[in-house]
Amino acid sequence: MLLSSTIIFAVTIALLEGIPLIKKKSWKELTTLVILLLIAIILVIEKLLEIPTPINIINNLLYPFGKAIFRSR
After folding, report:
1. Residue 4, C-beta contacts closer than 8 angstroms, at least 6 positions apart
2. Is 58 helix (H, G, I), strand (E, B) or coil?
3. pLDDT level of residue 73 (50, 70, 90 thresholds)
4. If phi over 0 gives left and psi between -120 and 50 gives alpha, with beta otherwise, what is residue 25?
5. 20 to 30 A from 37, CA-CA: which of 8, 14, 28, 59?
6. Taking the domains of the chain in order of start, what are their residue ranges?
C-alpha cells in the first residue's frame, strides 16, 4: 500500500512539475526532477523490503572499532 501510494504521489509531482518544465523546454530542471523522484522511490522500496542501506552497512562494519576506541573508562 505504501509503495503504490508513493508511486502515485511521485507521478502526481512529476506531472504537476514536469509539464510546465517541458513547455518551457527546461531539460536540465526536468532531468533533476526525474532523478530526485527516482531516488525517493528507490529509498522507499529499500525501506519496505528492509534492504540495508550503505550507511547501515558502514555502521555495522565500524561499530566494533568505535566501541573499542571510545569505550568508557
Report:
1. none
2. helix
3. low
4. left
5. 59
6. 2-69
Mean pLDDT of the 28-41 span = 93
Q: pTM score, two decimals? A: 0.68
Q: Which three cell numbers stand for residue 38?
A: 527516482
As a whole number of angstroms, the distance between CA 18 and CA 11 comes to: 10
Q: Which residues contact 2 (CB under 8 A, 6 or more apart)?
A: 44, 48
Q: How far is CA 56 from the centre of its chain?
A: 14
Contact, 41 vs 6, CB < 8 A? yes
